[in-house]
Amino acid sequence: MAAGPAPVDVAGLERALRAEVDGEVRFDAGSRGAYSTDGSNYRQVPLGVVVPRTVEAGARAVSVCARLHAPVLSRGGGTSLGGQCTNTAVVIDWTKYCNRLVSVDPAARGCVVEPGIALDELNRQLEPYGLKFGPKPATHSHCTLGGMIGNNSCGASAQAYGKTVDNVRRLEVLTYGGDRFWAGPTGPEEYERIVAAGGGRARIHRGLKDIADRHLAEIRRGYPKIPRRVSGYNLDSLLPENGFDVARALVGSEGTLVTVLRAELALVEVPAAEALLVLGYEDVYAAADAVPALLEHSRPAQLEAVDGRMAQLMREERVHLHSLELLPEGDAWLLVQFTGESKEEADRQAYELLRAVGRGEEDASVAFSDDPPREQEFLKAREAGLGVTARPPDGSETWEGWEDSAVAPERLGGYLRDLERLYERYGYQQASLYGHFGQGCVHTRIPFGLRDAKGVEAFRAFLEEAADLVSSYGGSLSGEHGDGQARGELLPRMFGPALVGAMGEVKALFDPENRMNPGKVVDPRPLDADLRLGPGWRPRPERRTFFAYSGDGHDFTRAVQRCVGIGNCRAHEGGVMCPSYRATLEEEHSTRGRARLLFEMLDGHGDSPVDDGWRSTEVRDALDLCLSCKGCASDCPVGVDMATYKAEFLAQHYRWRPRPPAHYSLGWLPLWARLARPAPGVANAALRAPVLGRLGKLAAGVDPRRAAPPFAAVSFQEAWRRSRRPEPRPEDPRTVLLWPDTFTNHFHPQVAGAAVRVLEDAGFRVTVPDATVCCGLTWISTGQLGIARRVLERTTRTLRPWLEAGTPVVALEPSCAAALRSDATELLAGDEDARRLAAQTRTFAEQLVHHAPDAWRAPRAGRAATVQTHCHQYAKLGTGADRELMRRAGLDADVLDAGCCGLAGNFGFERGHYELSMAIAEQGVLPAVRATAADAFVLADGFSCRTQIEQAGTGRRALHLAEALALALDGPPPGDRPERAAPGAGRGVGRGHRRAEAGRSHSRAPRGPA
Predict the structure, then answer these.
(1) Which of 918, 913, 906 is nearest to 953 (CA)?
(2) In this structure, what DSSP letter does residue 588 have?
(3) In terms of CB atoms within 10 Å, which of 116, 382, 539, 697 comes out highest?
């Protein structure tokens, strides 16, 4: 038996890479842990990570690794589901720097790109040319072109544009041995020229031609003639009739043959119009049976399927509910999209198909749309399949492994029925079936038992039988996700020994040392080895946690495992998740990277690079740049809530230990604000004094560039007590309790004064607690959970009369409302008062939109508004009521989809965070504010958002929605910078409260409904 590769001198390798490569070289435990797995069931800890600053630096890194015989793994978005992007190798992450669109040739409809560019980013840059790259996987927001080339990715649009291989013209590649060249179609004359030139390129081309010639018959006979054959190397691209295309032969080789340095791509025109038909069927098998007829009578751009199980999971998880409401009758649906040069042309194709299959637009089983936003809702629901099916609400776990098999579309119905019977024999019922039915590709996630030996044994047996089944249908093990470790071992069952042997010859030709992503595709590691879990996984016994993790079986370990590696947290725009990744482009500072490190912290594997549990400095450092924005709680398809995990980690990490100064200064802000109340002017002067202020910030762990928000001269509760207003009865249905959060009460009391005016104008009777109440937010965000729990317990005791009476609690600060609704019940699990408080907490807009008398009409502000939604509101509360209230008030609201403001409570104030905080703000929020017209409002209900906007030198002051409506009570706001008419923070407080106190005399008579 031949000896394996010699062990790598890791220390020497690190030194050489640092000395010779222009890039970030990381062999630390945190980086290795963050890259230890991808989107698959597999886990292999890398030797180290290199982030090259240029393509040339990446090539140099490969050269250094080759000299020292270290294996290499090129990585893009890291979303691979077959284990292609995890290996005990030097991982080269191209995404941070090597992400340029190098050139565009509009006339030839082509472009050249670097491997790290994300697909959506490429298409954004191509928009001015009216062009795009055709294939569009569900991970289009963050998958990279290098990764798409490695996997031969497809997506729904492959129905019209083909696989990635069909859209690659040339590749600039580098072999492990140092040969570098552009590969592409190679006609006879070009082939002779290459061979005559000699060298490594000639050797490779001669070798490939020899392999293709010797296996010509097997290649022609053994490769399935189906739209979605992705498994195996593309030896068929080397056939003479296919132009001996070396570039296409390398597409889909998963980094096992070459390193792709640049790619020349074919582009397609962006269609001018689209139309979408949704056809309902009695079950998914009937839907599959209908596909051939649909293809016979039309040429759709997409033909996607969703089954009833997936729709039911969406209902249970309360996602994409609006899309579900639009579905026609049925328990399975086909989504058929058409494109055209005009709306009429796209519509015509849809109507012609309906006539051809004997249906009409009025049929209950038909839905039609030529409205792009509505179409995108449908298609996003389909794209959400992986996330929706990964963690069903019943607590089961589903996994990859047989998630993208493919057959000819005309054989799809029979294959699905046989696959379902195979599920039943193994007890894998309840697996959803969906996917790209127009090309015979089936997606699913299966409840494999990957935690014990019997479950893993069944996993192997099922995959072997499934491979035989799909092969018997003339299909492919993979229809778009590739082979990696999950299916590499099964390739002989599909291709036979001769073709698999030919693939081995190709591997030996390019990589004789087997150092390029070894153990994948050719000479693969066993499909049941290197599992992320597996029978040998033994996480350390869990210390009692502060949060209940009620959605995860009260198990922090299970909560951490929510992350399945989809990687939506690496999206560059849209939504909130993940602001720290968007600003740093660092895997370690993405939600996924942090989840990986928390998983490693559990120390379930003996080779975990993170071996000191809750005391881990690697995990602490990765979580340090987490803004606790909670964006992942809504944007992550499987509901990872990194803000909660961070708070838990900090609580455990610093238990019985000194904390950073900011935890005492900012975390205890409610206490300091109360202590400053007797002399707020003195406190403000001290905070702003040049020497004393600087020393104070140094001691408090606050960045010196941050200005301390001034304390108001009179707090809201003080003004309220002075007003001597009659106390409404808690049981009065008109009574609402206005929550005096720390930020509103002590810094921006004018917001509360404005809210009182508007609430009383709507007919409500406002009460305010006289005693101190707090949601514990600042203690939660700094991980002081024991204190937060005690604060919440005291708060619920104080509020008990109102809680027992069912009095609504109106919170003006979104982060406090979110804490009361979600964090409180997790910290006080089983506490009935905490449950009541969560149920009775409402936002200002929710109270007015859903509970104001029908006769009330919102005051008319009548102008445009740029609106920044607080991240916690986006994630936990929703914005529907706010949008409706602004509509009723005549506000033409531009609700930004620009992500986090970057301040995020204490985060942006802490020393070491200022640059990142401002970089995040400059990615969207601040440019939008600067571009706001002078006569428009800038609205931000969150104190952090308002503070960031004011301190960033935008020249604008953001108002709370309550302030804008209160201004409108007095008539049209001024035309230039309307915020100037509103009382400012720390000034004019009396004016706001005098208005509130005299609410009855200033209130209008209730008007008819808006």
Answers:
(1) 918
(2) G
(3) 116
